[in-house]
Design goal:
By secondary structure, the protein is an alpha/beta fold. Helix content is 39%, strand content 17%. Strand 10 and strand 11 form a beta hairpin. InterPro entries: Hydantoinase_A (IPR002821), MfnF (IPR002756).
């Protein structure tokens, strides 16, 4: 049995040997079926969130595309839905159910727990205690409830959360162009490694400290030589201050309402955010592959 999580940007596969993360964007012609063909001969349990990618007319089209692509390699695959059940065919319940699979798995061992799963694009912040209340929740409802915060460690445009930084003792407003992303920020600040920067860069160029600093400098319409490393790093720090404050404040609000016994932190940001929210890094403490939690979770649910 393998677990598959089909996101809009990344495909994550967990098998008995390892975690495999493939950059596989669905908003342009996708090679999803070809990538999955590498794993022939296994049974598959699947979750998804990639149906929202804007290459599809609507979620229904996205769900059908993903199910059809998976079925080319795994004709008997089954898909976990927001109703907490597995399905054999494309249906509306399959949309954005990956977070629920994570909760469904974790709640068995941590019934009074709460999850912060912060990945490349989003942060899922969900208490476990009233699992039945979570069934049927769409991402829109989760945004309204504070259970979904649309910011992540790699793909968030810098100007969406911060609007200025102090550079050479002057408050300098940000441009709102997509010049740099959270991946550039976290790489420069040491929160992620080069191997963890799995998303495409805004300019399509390499992942290196200098390349990230150059992208960050463009946020204030400058070359790196104009503002220097200190100026570009100030841009990164302004974004990180805003992102940290946003995520931690929502975690605190949800925790105050749910009074969880503990906070379990997954995603590529687990090691960064676990100490900030007083939580447990699932990879370090429990051995769960935090950077592919839904794929791991759906496999475990299917096995049980």
């Amino acid at each position: 049995m393998i677990g598959i999580d089909v996101g809009g940007a990344n495909l994550k596969v967990v098998d008995g040997r390892d975690v495999h993360i493939h950059y596989c964007p669905l908003w342009r012609e996708s090679n999803l079926a070809e990538v999955l063909a590498e794993y022939q001969g296994e049974d598959a349990a699947v979750v998804m969130s990639g149906e929202l990618a804007d290459g599809f007319f609507n979620k229904t089209e996205g769900i059908r595309f993903i199910v059809d692509a998976v079925r080319k390699t795994f004709p008997n695959a089954f898909f976990y839905g927001t109703d907490g059940k597995f399905h054999n065919n494309a249906c509306s319940e399959l949309a954005a159910a990956n977070w629920l699979a994570s909760v469904d798995y974790l709640r068995e061992k941590y019934p009074d727990g709460m999850m912060l799963d912060i990945g490349s694009t989003t942060a899922d912040i969900v208490p476990f205690a009233k699992f039945s209340d979570l069934l049927g929740m769409t991402d829109t409802i989760r945004l309204q409830r504070g259970y979904l915060v649309y910011t992540g460690m790699l793909r968030t445009p810098v100007a969406t959360l911060a609007n200025s930084a102090v550079i050479k003792n002057t408050v300098t407003p940000f441009s709102t162009e997509y010049f740099a992303c959270s991946g550039d920020v976290h790489y420069v600040l040491g929160n992620i490694t080069e191997d963890e920067y799995t998303a495409a860069t805004p300019d399509g160029k390499e992942v290196s400290r200098e390349a990230c600093l150059r992208r960050l400098a463009r946020i204030v319409c400058a070359d790196l030589e104009e503002v220097g490393e200190d100026g570009a790093t100030a841009v990164a720090q302004a974004f990180w201050d805003a992102q940290r404050k946003l995520v931690c404040s929502v975690v605190q609000k949800v925790a105050e309402e749910a009074a969880p016994g503990n906070i379990l932190v997954g995603g590529i940001g687990s090691k960064t955010f676990a100490p900030l929210v007083g939580g447990t890094d699932l990879t370090a403490a429990v051995g769960i592959p935090a950077d592919a939690l839904p794929a791991f979770a759906v496999k475990e649910i299917a096995n049980r």
